[in-house]
Specification:
With 105 residues, the protein is mainly α. It is 51% helix and 0% strand. The chain folds into 2 domains: 43 residues, no CATH class; 34 residues, no CATH class.
Length: 105
């Protein structure tokens, strides 16, 4: 393969992959740090591949839902009222974490 220079965007993408693998327990923080150093020193795409070659491919995240959840799916503290204000609040709540799920964690 021809030596293709790596861009900053390529480096950031690989660092994101390394972060996910670290969150999932495949890399220790020391390994993550070492590999991030390798990524920042990488000059070509082949150099970047070396940082992730021994890691499995990650599943893609599903795209976010374009609509807020139905009223019945909202927790009691987030029930919406009627009218435009209620619909706007429901849209805002759909982007906020539920306070009940936060307290259970």
């Amino acid at each position: 393969m021809a030596l293709v220079r790596a861009s900053d965007e390529d480096r950031q993408r690989v660092i994101g992959v390394l972060q996910r693998h670290t969150e999932e327990g495949r890399l220790s923080l020391d390994e993550f740090s070492d590999r991030v150093g390798t990524v920042y020193a990488a000059k070509t795409l082949d150099d970047l591949r070396a940082a992730v070659v021994d890691l499995p491919a990650l599943a893609r995240c599903p795209p976010p839902s374009p609509r807020p959840p139905p009223v019945g799916d909202l927790c009691p503290g987030h029930r919406r009222g009627g009218g435009l204000r209620g619909r706007l609040r429901a849209a805002q709540v759909a982007r906020e974490p539920c306070h009940e799920r936060q307290s259970a964690a």
